[in-house]
Structure formats: C-alpha cells, structure tokens
C-alpha cells in the first residue's frame, strides 16, 4: 500500500467508487483515471436520490474499483457542482478524459449511457430520459494513491 503526505490509506474504511457498469466502459474509464486523463465525472442527481446516498463532498475519498471489483486507486473529491444538464461546459466534458472535444459529443455519449436499458433498470424507470433541465452532479477529483502493481 502506498501513501500520500497524510499517511497510510485504510482501504476498508473508504466507500467504493464505481464508474459506469462493469465491462468495457468501466475498463476504459478506469484506464483514463489511472493515466491521469480523467479528472472529472458526471452523474445524475436522481441516481443519488434513488440510492439514498448523499452527494459527494470536498475532500471525500473513495476507492476506485475495476470491472472485477478490484481496488485500483484512491481518489479525493476536489470539486462538486449541481447544474442543469444544459449548463455543462466544454472544460468539464474534456476533463472527463473520454476523448470528447465538444459538448455535443459528450452529451451524445452520456445520453446513450443514461438512456440504456441497464441504467433505466438501475433507476427502476423503463422510460427514463434526460433533457436540458435534468440536474447533474459535476464532480472533480484527483488520484491520491494508485493501487495497481503491474
């Protein structure tokens, strides 16, 4: 286990950070986090409400897991904003590290994910859709500790 200036990281005490669903998308996102391209993410506010979870807070740390549920990094929240989907800016989209250079590209990819059967099932709403007014949680983070050894 590695540590930063604040001392050793106790993985058991940290919540999991699961990006997307297990599979190719999660694997690509985890790779982008580990190589430093991804420093931001977007979630639907309704996801937090549906799960009964509080919104992320500044300084909060979590353990990023890969598709096999293995811990790969510890991240720390450096910023949180709730905005309408139509207000997401290009800088945030680029900082998500998934290769999007325009809001239109970013939005199309996110709508495919949010309108997927898997997401609709997770939300318990077979007809779930987003529009410009849908509240989204824009989160920024930094990697505190990488946990992969190879």
How would you characterize the overall build of this protein?
The structure is a single chain. The protein is built from five helices and seven strands. The protein is an alpha+beta fold. It has a five-stranded mixed sheet. Strands 1-2 form a two-stranded antiparallel ribbon. Strand 5 and strand 6 (71-84) form a beta hairpin. 18% of the residues are buried. Mean pLDDT is 92; it is low at 1-5.
Give a quick account of the main beta sheet: strands, pairing sense, barrel closure. 5 strands, mixed
> Into which percent range does the helicity of residues fall?
25-40%
Structural class: alpha+beta
Q: Please give the order of strands in the largest beta sheet.
A: 3-5-6-7-4
Order of helices and strands: EEEHEHEEHHHE
- Percentage of residues in DSSP E strands: 25-35%
Distance between the termini: 13 Å
| Number of strand elements | 7
Assign an overall shape. globular
Task: Specify the oligomeric state.
Answer: single chain
Low-pLDDT residue spans? 1-5
Radius of gyration: 15 Å
Number of helices: 5
Mean pLDDT: 92
Structure summary:
This protein is α+β, with helices and mostly antiparallel strands.
Write the layout of secondary structure elements.
Elements: E1 3-4, E2 7-8, E3 16-17, H1 24-34, E4 40-44, H2 45-51, E5 61-65, E6 71-84, H3 90-95, H4 103-114, H5 117-123, E7 135-146
Parallel strand pairs: 3-5
Antiparallel strand pairs: 1-2, 4-7, 5-6, 6-7
